[in-house]
């Protein structure tokens, strides 16, 4: 597959949202740090939300946030009959030191249908080569990561060599130093699986060493227990964000196989993101979801009475809830945070 390429431009007031964003991203997650950062969460949540758009839009939005003159590449593969809808955007700072890998999710209503039809199955996989431990993961999610994995790694290798993702013939001032991986919904599941597949002692070592953090938003469950040692390593730098009444983090239901979350979970309630004492639990079945689907069209009072509302899963709700107070939106206005 041949990647698409674009370059983000420069912005005028009220942008950029963050004056020194590349520096902020370099400093936020030092190699030994494992603390959620509000700026990183906002930037990655916005990138994950706009991964539903096209490459020019992604490059423009990331320039507005603070990665002006960024290099942006997109790799994609779609095979409807195999439930493959795999798209990844790789955004590179102008200096070359920071790269954000953002996986596209699926529209909320389509995701529930996708989860119900795509197979989890009893199949087990070895996430990294020469690993004797076989792990049961959601087969559909894993298939989507594999569909574009080699193309994504090729783009990251370009960044490691200090070349521009907008034009690989162009040499930048620095090679890749800090990699962030993100995604909303299915994209979040793919972000986690990609991080798990990086071989810390193998061919991917240089990339794995530069992985600073994985931030996901409305991410479904991806893996069965017992969790592998690699899940502990990735879990230390994994920050999952869950809106309180979003049903997707509790899916797929246990009828498709028992799965478990790992990493740090943050829940949004009463206008704040707070660490969760226990991770979101898996739904036993699909009985609670029909009402959540209808919540798109229900009154505000009716939506409030439902345990779950699929409307809460929308990426725009996550972006609004993540924006720090006092920062303009990606549109340049001062909309109410959390709207």
Kindly describe this structure:
With 339 residues, this protein is of the alpha/beta class. The chain has a single domain, classed as Alpha/Beta hydrolase fold, catalytic domain (Rossmann fold, 3-Layer(aba) Sandwich). Helices cover 32% and strands 17% of the residues. The protein has 11 helices and 9 strands. The chain has helices at 21-28, 38-50, 55-65, 108-117, 139-160, 186-197, 205-210, 229-236, 289-294, 300-305, 315-322, and strands at 4-7, 71-79, 84-92, 98-103, 178-184, 211-217, 238-243, 264-269, 272-275. Helix 2 (38-50) runs antiparallel to helix 3, helix 2 runs antiparallel to helix 11 and helix 5 crosses helix 6 (186-197). The protein is globular, with a radius of gyration of 19 Å. The protein starts with a strand and ends in a 17-residue tail after the last helix. The relative contact order is 0.14.
**Tally of helical segments:** 11
State the shape: globular
Kindly identify the CATH topology: Rossmann fold
Q: Main sheet: which strands, in order across?
A: 1-2-3-4-5-6-7-8-9
CATH class: Alpha Beta
């Amino acid at each position: 597959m041949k990647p698409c390429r674009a370059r983000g431009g420069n912005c005028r007031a009220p942008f950029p949202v963050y004056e020194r964003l590349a520096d902020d991203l370099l400093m936020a997650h030092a190699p030994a740090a494992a603390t959620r950062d509000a700026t990183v969460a906002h930037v990655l949540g916005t990138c994950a939300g706009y991964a539903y758009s096209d490459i020019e839009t992604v490059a423009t939005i990331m320039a507005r946030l603070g990665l002006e003159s960024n290099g942006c590449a997109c790799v994609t593969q779609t095979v409807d009959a195999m439930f493959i809808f795999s798209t990844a955007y790789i955004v590179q700072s102008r200096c070359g030191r920071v790269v954000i890998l953002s996986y596209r999710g699926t529209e909320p209503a389509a995701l529930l249908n996708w989860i119900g039809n795509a197979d989890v199955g009893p199949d087990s996989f070895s996430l990294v080569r020469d690993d004797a431990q076989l792990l049961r993961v959601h087969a559909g999610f894993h298939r989507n990561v594999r569909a574009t994995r080699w193309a994504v790694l090729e783009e990251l290798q370009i960044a490691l060599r200090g070349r521009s993702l907008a034009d690989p013939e162009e040499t930048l001032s620095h090679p890749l130093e800090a990699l962030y991986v993100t995604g909303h919904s299915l994209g979040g599941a793919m972000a986690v699986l990609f991080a798990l597949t990086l071989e810390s002692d193998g061919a991917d070592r240089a990339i794995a060493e530069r992985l600073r953090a994985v931030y996901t938003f409305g991410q479904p469950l991806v893996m069965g227990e017992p969790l592998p040692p690699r899940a502990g390593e990735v879990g230390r730098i994994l920050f999952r964000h869950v809106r309180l009444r979003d049903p997707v983090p509790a899916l797929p239901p246990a009828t498709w196989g028992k799965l478990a979350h790992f990493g740090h979970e943050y829940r949004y309630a009463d206008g704040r993101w707070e660490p969760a004492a226990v991770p979101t639990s898996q739904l036993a079945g699909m009985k609670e979801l029909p009402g959540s689907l209808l919540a798109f069209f229900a009154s505000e009072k009716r939506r409030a009475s439902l345990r779950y509302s699929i409307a809460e899963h929308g990426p725009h709700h996550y972006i609004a809830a993540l924006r720090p107070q006092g920062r303009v939106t990606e549109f340049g206005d001062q909309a109410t945070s959390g709207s």
